[in-house]
Amino acid sequence: MNRVVDRDHAAAMGKDEFFGQEMYLASVTGWPPEKLTPEDPVRSPAGARFALWATDPADVRHIPPPPSEGALYASTAFSMVNSGNRTLRVPKRSWKIDLTLGDAGNDRIAGMSHLNFKAMYNDPSQMREALAWRLFHKAGVPASRHTYTKLAINNRYQGLFSVIEEVDRRYLKDRFGVNDRGNLYKAACGDLGCATLEHRVGDNGDDDGRQYRVAKGQQTYVLKTNEDDLRANSYDDLAQLVRVVNGIGLSGGDGRFDTDGYRESVEQIMNVRCFLRWASTNLLIGSWDNYFATPSNFFLYNSGRSGGERDFVESAYFTLLPWDYDNSFGIDYFGTRWQYTDVVDWPSNTRNYYHNNNRPGETSRIPLVQNILRNREFVRYYLDHLEHLLDTDFNPDAVAAQIGADGGGLWDRVRQPAYLESDTPDGPPFTGRQFSNDEVYLTACRQNERNRGGSHVEGIYHYVRMRYDRARQQLVDLRRLHPRSSSGAEFPGTVEALPTGSEHPE
Questions:
Q1: Model confidence, pTM
Q2: Any idea what the Cα angle at residue 53 is, between residues 52 and 58, rounded to 5°?
Q3: How many CB atoms lie within 10 A of CB 468?
């Protein structure tokens, strides 16, 4: 039976309210059976309907009905597409749902025009992304919000999914206010290789944005906003960032990075302390499929400066925005113990990654990490924040409390929806998830490790314990040169306000 849907409430509700709900049920009915693996967006045909409502994570029913007041949101105009890179064609796929196809073109849930449903195919615990996003928020890093949903298509249960806040215009508005019209770059692996942020010069000695884009083909730095604005889409702002990060124009060889001139130039063009808080968090959780080993799967947003939001090309100011955290907390495919990565020399632990990708002897090239950590003031801030995390939110006790194997944590939220994906404890899930219910229990609740083909998955608690112990050991040596609290910073950090810039001339 169709129930009343309060569309105004769904559009007006805040994101904190939306993502504060522990579990949703997303139901798609009338979907073409031959369109269950779409790699290009498929628009809903006549008779199809998407609906979303809150539900109890402990409910033992696969598809609990809406509450008496009806669904939170429903629409007959939407599109769906499978999403992901490494997991695009796995049996249990992730989905992106576009809600902007109605007559008004402005359908929204909590201001969001898209919903990301992540299948968590690599993660038997079903909790890694939830833990990662929580840590980034506590670290004062602008990061996506997260919750969970059960998904049903044509009244067939598809399983448990993470709901990840899309990085889009609304996301930028929420975090950067009137500076929401800048250039948003998605880092990928394309025709220029992966998004290393290494300096590039053209055949004629050109050193502008043309070196970081391709006329036709797959972009490495994908501009997601202002694509049709000839002034903004020149990539000149990205070229400026790359020059600064690589110390182009500064004298002194490698020593130029540990100078006031380098520090000041970086601080003028990016929120470097926010980046360092991201870096220390990312290093501890062992997330390698971003600006670490790949490098890919992150965003760079040039907001411009406060009061000069229209001058963002000429007066660039960048913030790194994280993305995609299923491969973290001890998931590996390359024979690498990510928990033992040197806290300063990240590339030294990427040899197996490149050997397995047919590039033996190479390591990752990530100048945004390598060069910035050569600066004494920057590395001290980074180490002080890393130690703050070890003292507070990233240690075995703190993470065990978040998981809540004895109740009161994430395990209570994911257990029943995950178990509903299989009819037996040790049989294959009918949803296509690669882990049985027993494996989910043993990995998520009992913290056993798992090996599957070429993959190795640590128990989250055991990964944290090993990463914590090794980081403490490494800090003993590093503190001889960089004493604790030598940065003078106080934590926890908060997302810094944009620096002031001049108003755009009228």
A1: 0.95
A2: 125
A3: 20
Decide if 462 contacts 335 (C-beta within 8 A). no
- Contact partners, residue 216, CB within 8 Å, separation at least 6: none
Calculate the dihedral angle through the C-alpha atoms of 187, 189, 193, 196, rounding to the nearest 10 degrees. Answer: 30
Alpha carbons 152 and 30: distance in angstroms, whole number? 11
Crossing angle of the two packed helices 460-481 and 272-285, in degrees rounded to 10? 130
Query: Which tokens is 64 given?
Result: 């609990």
**CB of 108 within 8 A of CB of 11?**
yes
Contact 160, 120 (CB under 8 A): yes
CA–CA separation, 218 and 214 (whole Å): 7
Give the type of residue at 252: G
Which residue type occupies 340?
A: Y
What does each of the 506 residues of the chain score in pLDDT, given as a tens digit? Answer: 344 455 566 767 889 999 999 999 999 999 999 999 999 999 999 999 999 999 999 999 999 999 998 999 999 999 999 998 878 899 999 999 999 876 544 568 998 999 999 999 999 999 999 999 999 999 999 999 999 999 999 999 999 999 999 999 999 999 999 999 999 999 999 999 999 999 999 888 889 999 999 988 999 999 999 999 999 999 999 999 999 999 999 999 999 999 999 999 999 999 999 999 999 999 999 999 999 999 999 999 999 999 999 999 999 999 999 999 999 999 999 999 999 999 999 999 999 999 999 999 999 999 999 999 999 999 999 999 999 999 999 999 999 999 999 999 999 999 999 999 999 999 999 999 999 999 999 999 999 999 988 899 999 999 999 999 999 999 999 999 999 999 999 999 999 999 997 543 33
Cα gap 289→295, rounded to integer Å: 7
d(CA 222, CA 235): 10
Count the neighbouring beta carbons within 10 Å of the beta carbon of residue 255.
12
Beta bridge partners of 194: 189
Neighbours of 103 (CB within 10 A): 7
Residue among 67, 94, 96, 91 nearest 80 (CA) = 96
